[in-house]
Amino acid sequence: MFTISSKFYRFGVIPFHVTTGSRCIHSVVCAVSGGVDSAVSAYLLKKKGFQVKGVFMTNWDVLDEKVDCSIDKDRQDAQYICEHLGIPFYEKNFVKEYWNYVFLPLIKSYEQGATPNPDILCNRFVKFNMFTKAVLKGGNHEDNDGGNGDGDSSTSSSLKADAIATGHYCRNSFGAYLQHKRSDVEAKLLRSADPVKDQTFWLSTISHKELQHCMFPVGDLSKPQVKQIAQDIGLSRICSRRESMGMCFIGKRRFSDFIDNYLEPKPGVFKDLETNLVLDEHTGVHHFTQGQKARIKRFTGPYYVAKMDPKNQIIYVVRDPSHPSLFMRKCWCGPAVWINSYPFSLINSKNIHFQWQNKWRPVNCVLKPFEDVSSAAAYVKQDIQRRDHHCQIDNSAALANIIDTSIEEGSRTTGPCLAVELTEPMRCIAPGQWSALYDGEVCLGAAMIYGSISLWEEGQTALYKWNLSDYELTYAG
């Protein structure tokens, strides 16, 4: 049983005091990034009567003073938000953890010609794992907070809380404020009320064990509503901030200039996918990703990366963005990471939705489980009539050496590997990306994509007619 007192707000009824039986949640640590979503989350928590503590996470050590990184500005805005709301501000340093669990695998993946997703790795290993353990009562993370931002570690004991909250657009089956929390059921991750801003994709590899302590105050609101609340409470300055996109530590540099600080150049060639003729040279497959434009000397207009062979440093390109080599409906994935238990009843059905880009709509798919990635890849390829030897490039083994080391032994439900068949083709499903899997509004988990088969490799030669608007998530009307 739980009781809720509530206060009417212009966007509906927002509860501000919750008692969940004998397990009352008093204090909540809110991850404050300096943006409007976490700012409004902290406000709503305080409005409910929780003892709110704002915590800014530092994940990157800016050593290159030439880089225009937003970390310092984000920290200042986070402090401003906490001061404005009248809540204490703390800073937790996870630079070492981010480097080991996110950045090093990122670099290794690029070296293998893959397209990794650092945000998914950060949420899985840092924000909803180490950070959660560090701030929850009973957590065992070595304390490294900067108490009120001034390096005063004497405040560490006051940072511990009963729950954490973030500004993510997603929902918890236990409720926005854990008001439906029960000890005999597992928490589920649900899509947000705002379909365009939904961020369950980024959280698709977290565990239900962490989810049972997580609040998502803005999950039931739309982005316009969140911005209006921020305006109403005097945080107009935060509303005008640009939303953070990509990896801030790259700054204003080109990605190729950034990655060259960590990977040696590896000369290679561009080849025409259809003719196998050498067109130009490049300095490493780690500068490119599938579907990316590639400027080829002596030719006007762009080519597009269709396939990469990291071992031989060959990049196969095509001239048309609608070329069938850029579209796939079959792929294979490494061990799946399930938020809850293995969804036996959904395997081999068409009721699972596949989403591999946060801003692109999900599509129905059929999953088939296999003990290892080689078997999954073989199944996907078995009915394919190979057109040319250079079309079939399988980098699964190299990716597995990177990815398998990131699976927490015995602590999560992982596996099996998956063969995936989509009900319609999607553009540029590249190795290293994650496929989030859904049953309706419930996020089941995710799996790393190891490889795919294009329509070109299936034998289709005609251009595939498509429009970007057919893929993107947009508001109705």
Automatic annotation (TrEMBL):
It comes from Trichobilharzia regenti (Nasal bird schistosome). Keywords: ATP-binding, Disulfide bond, Nucleotide-binding, RNA-binding, Transferase, tRNA processing, tRNA-binding. It catalyses: 5-taurinomethyluridine(34) in tRNA + S-sulfanyl-L-cysteinyl-[protein] + AH2 + ATP = 5-taurinomethyl-2-thiouridine(34) in tRNA + L-cysteinyl-[protein] + A + AMP + diphosphate + H(+). Gene3D superfamilies: Adenine nucleotide alpha hydrolases-like domains, HUPs, Translation factors. Residues 418-449 form the tRNA-specific 2-thiouridylase MnmA-like C-terminal domain. The keyword Signal does not apply. Residues 139-158 are annotated as: Disordered. Pfam families: tRNA_Me_trans (PF03054), tRNA_Me_trans_C (PF20258), tRNA_Me_trans_M (PF20259). GO terms for biological process: tRNA wobble position uridine thiolation. Belongs to the MnmA/TRMU family. One of its GO terms (molecular function) is ATP binding. It is an enzyme of class 2 (transferase). One of its GO terms (cellular component) is mitochondrion. Its EC number is 2.8.1.14. Residues 257-319 form the tRNA-specific 2-thiouridylase MnmA-like central domain. This is tRNA-5-taurinomethyluridine 2-sulfurtransferase. CDD domains: MnmA_TRMU-like. Catalyzes the 2-thiolation of uridine at the wobble position (U34) of mitochondrial tRNA(Lys), tRNA(Glu) and tRNA(Gln). Required for the formation of 5-taurinomethyl-2-thiouridine (tm5s2U) of mitochondrial tRNA(Lys), tRNA(Glu), and tRNA(Gln) at the wobble position. ATP is required to activate the C2 atom of the wobble base.
